[in-house]
Amino acid sequence: MRLATFNVLHGRSLDDGLVSADRFRAAVAALDADVVGLQEVDLDQPRSGRLDLTALAAEALGAVDHRFVAAVVGTPGEAWRAAGTPPPDGEPQYGVAMVSRFPVRRWLIHRLPAAPTRSPIAIGGRVVLLPDEPRVLLAAVIDAPHGPVTVATTHLSFVPGWNVRQLRRSVRALRALPGPRVLLGDLNLPAGIARVVTGWRVAARMPTYPSTTPKIQLDHVLVDPAFRGTIGAVSTPPSPVSDHRPLVVDLVM
User: Fold this and answer.
1) Burial of 16 (0-12, 13-18, 19+ CB in 10 A)
2) Which of 28, 116, 135, 165 has the fewest CB atoms found within 10 Å of its own CB?
3) Distance between CA atoms of 239 and 219, rounded to whole angstroms?
4) Helix/strand/coil (H/E/C) assignment for every residue in 71-122
5) Cα(175)–Cα(239) distance, integer angstroms
6) What mean pLDDT comes out for the span 57-82?
7) Is 148 exposed, middle or buried (0-12, 13-18, 19+ CB in 10 A)?
8) What is the distance between the alpha carbons of residues 253 and 239, in angstroms, rounded to a whole number?
9) Do residues 3 and 14 make contact, with C-beta atoms less than 8 angstroms apart?
């Protein structure tokens, strides 16, 4: 089973700063993955042409199931509020998504509160204090050919320490779903810390950011101790969208 995690930067290309439906579909199709966890996903956002990026990804992969879950309603960096109850149709949303070529038996959504204080972030050569955004964990019990497997995706906080807390909460939430379990996502953490915090196996150690010349790994595929298979091919292919590279991992179940 081929899995991929991809922080898509709302589908934007670094080449021209634009979001193109055709280019985004091609980028996802090139992964040729059975299950993909996507982060920084837009829905009905003016900056991405009000596209439904999750639906485009599902179309690109021939997925039979897909789901988008908003972390915020509004536009990050501008005006937004924490997502909760479904917003009115057409209101811009931003969050995570999963697409699967295999049927999904059950979905789970677990919300992760934002850090309570502003944190310093370097932007344009200066340091500014930014409020953190709430995050969300999306998990699916997938009816894979070899049997059920739980696959989850999330995008954790950039705030040091708070992202560790969110990762612990995510692992606890996933205990409610059957193993083996796999977590895909931009964890904003190095692999060693993710392994120690979770006790899970790091399926791949390859830099994913920045996309042009990757130097650090923010994007991970973690497998829990119930996974009895082996890790196959691993890659971080270049992509026409995003400032992250996708991480693609073959699991031999």
Assistant:
1) exposed
2) 116
3) 15
4) EEEECCCCCEEECCCCCCCCCCEEEEEEEECCCEEEEEEEEECCCCCCEEEE
5) 34
6) 96
7) middle
8) 27
9) no
Pull the structure tokens for residue 106: 């059950």
Indicate which CATH number applies to the domain containing 191. Answer: 3.60.10.10
Tokens of 164: 């560790």
Q: Rounded to 5 degrees, what are φ and ψ at 167?
A: -65, -40
pLDDT at 120: 78
User: In degrees rounded to 5, what are phi and psi of residue 216?
Assistant: -130, 155
Rg (CA), the chain: 17
Q: In this structure, what token pair is assigned to residue 37?
A: 């966890």
Domain total of the chain: 1
As a 3-state breakdown, the chain gives helix, strand, coil percent values, each rounded to 5, of 20, 40, 40
Give the burial class of 59: count Cβ atoms within 10 A of its Cβ; 0-12 exposed, 13-18 middle, 19 or more buried. middle
Task: With cut-offs at 50, 70 and 90, classify the pLDDT of residue 85.
Answer: confident
Distance separating alpha carbons of residues 207 and 8, to the nearest angstrom = 16
